[in-house]
Amino acid sequence: MYKYLFYLLAVIPKTIRKKVSKRLARYFIQKYAVIDANGLENIPKVENVIFIANHLSNADGLIMQYVLEKAKAVTFLAGVKLQDELITSMVLELIPHIQIHPNKPDRKALREAIEVVKNSNSLFIFPEGTRSRAGELLKGRSGVVLIARNTNSLIVPIGIWGTEKLLPINAKGKMSREWFSRADVYINIGKPFSLASLSEEGEVIDLMMLRIAQLLPEKYKGYYK
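Structure (tokenized):
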């Protein structure tokens, strides 16, 4: 029934659609997700912060905006393929975002991301570049390192789990067939760090991803166990 509602929303004016979609999004989060968020006190007061998190579900961005909205306005890096599906494209209308091609060097998106942070705004990145179908951390991609180096921003690591049950990935890769289920969602927000504070041993991206892994239960750590 709800999916038919989204089809109806698609044909109404955008300004009205956004208002209705925002209410629907909050309704779905409150109906299906029991959120346990810890560490909000770790979010710095400075404006330009880079948030990095693991990625388990298309619900991750929606959940994180919902959790962070009272603490920090955030622009998300979002894969271009999310625009190809009706529901995810409507969700993106609610979330400030930069479109990125995650499987190749997207210099335009990286430049936009750097400008966002330099203009005293905050950015949210899933460094794995895609959702983890195995439910475990994948090796991070280095685009976030470039952004951090060019902005000298504080970086806040976040561990998320439970969203893979809230909005499970469709086994055949069809996002249009994904839908919500009731689930407990856990969010751990770690203490901010800078690139300068990282050890010189190992790849920078791996050292950053380890900060995320430390906030996750063992079974979610994957590549960074």
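The chain has a mean pLDDT of 90. Residues 2-224 form a domain with the Glycerol-3-phosphate (1)-acyltransferase fold (CATH 3.40.1130.10).
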